Amino acid sequence: MQKVDLAYVRLASSEIARDINRDVILEVIRANQPISRAELARLSGLQRSTVSLIVNQLIEERWVRDGAKADLPRGRHPTMVGLNDDLVMLVADIRPKLATVAVVDLNGRFLSRAQLPVTSDPERTIAGIVETMLRMKNNHPQRSFQGVGIALPGRVDSETQRLRFAPNLGWPGFDIKGAIESGTGMAVEMDNAANACLLAETWFGGMDGVRNAVLVTISEGVGTGILSNGQLIYGDHGMAGEFGHIPLDINGPVCGCGARGCWEVFASSSAALRYYADSKPKVMARTIEDLLRLAGEEDPKAIAALTKQAEYVGRGLRIVSATLAPEVILIAGDIVAAWATFGPVIEKAFAESILSGLQPRLMPTHEAEVARLRGAAILVLQRRSSAGEANDGKRAPKQAVPARHKESGKGAGRRALAVK
């Protein structure tokens, strides 16, 4: 018989069953809105009386609202329900040189979006982000703001809620969460950008049934988010997933983390720009967008630089595959914009280095910036949904376990959004 560790056993209860039913109903509404209560019962397999109770409670808590009556050829005209898109989140994707701020509703739609520079002065940069957020909030007085979500290029300590490791950002010790909460008056949730992208893929993407996946972000650095056996993995102090800082060549260039030859010094967008500069081109490329444009114009040196980067992306995926054995590896980031050209290079390098002939599916995600922002919104929804009542983002929830550690898998991330 298999031993059971009683420290990790959670007995089933009517409360757990109710929460699961609420998750199911909210997911069915999200995927099929507008939808009638009768159709909800049919698709969910729950009794109509149970569905009506849950829907009424979701309406009372403002997650869901009644819409128009259905125009059926015969019989009653049922009232359709859908998500309440008056509930919105302020979100930001902070990268080493640029921050994107947006307003996102429950359906993942963007109502406002703006960009501003990121400097080495965190206080000044965050003040600019806060000012932009407040302006956006004032521009949507009819909406109910539920809080602030932040995607970051580093690891957030799950205990202190401060950046623990972000070598490409360089803001040691600065209290990002505290500064934004003080400036906006709203609760703030933060996470690594790769984790945010993975959350967005599980909610808005096509990952139903996938329980083991890794999302790799390729930008100024290389980051990874891990879904293992249906759970998002954070590790001690939120540090799990730093594959970008595993050395491929101990004699390679110095990495921002202080080591030599890390995967990201060979496979990041910064690496591609370095390869191009080393080739002494006639036309300089200041950004990865410049380099991709030059490659699209068939500049041979730009193509060579991006090809070299893609080969290193593929080689590094061996580490991910051999360590975690995922079903799917998702690639997000700058190079995906030219996937038709460089995706086959990544796939070939990966296939040549795979162990035991078992190769995960390799899939590009074409909306990296959007995924970061939507993932940041999901962070807020996880926190809000655990509170169990509308609070306009002004009060932190009381919960024993962070919502992001809840089970996920088929519809991963979606269940975490349901009201608890």
Give me the side-by-side strand order of the main sheet. 6-5-4-7-10
Helix content: 25-40%
Number of strands: 15
* Low-pLDDT sequence parts: 1-9, 388-420
What is the C-alpha radius of gyration, as a whole number of Å? 23 Å
Intertermini distance: 34 Å
Order of helices and strands: HEHHEEEEEHEEEHEHEEEHHHHEHEHH
The percent range for strand residues is 15-25%
> Which oligomerization state do the chains in this entry correspond to?
single chain
CATH class of the largest domain: Alpha Beta
CATH architectural type of the largest domain: 2-Layer Sandwich
Largest sheet: 5 strands, mixed
Number of domains: 3
Average pLDDT reading: 84
CATH fold annotation of the largest domain:
Nucleotidyltransferase, domain 5
Outline = globular
User: CATH-wise, what's the superfamily of the largest domain?
Assistant: ATPase, nucleotide binding domain
Number of helices in the DSSP assignment: 13
Helix-strand category: alpha/beta
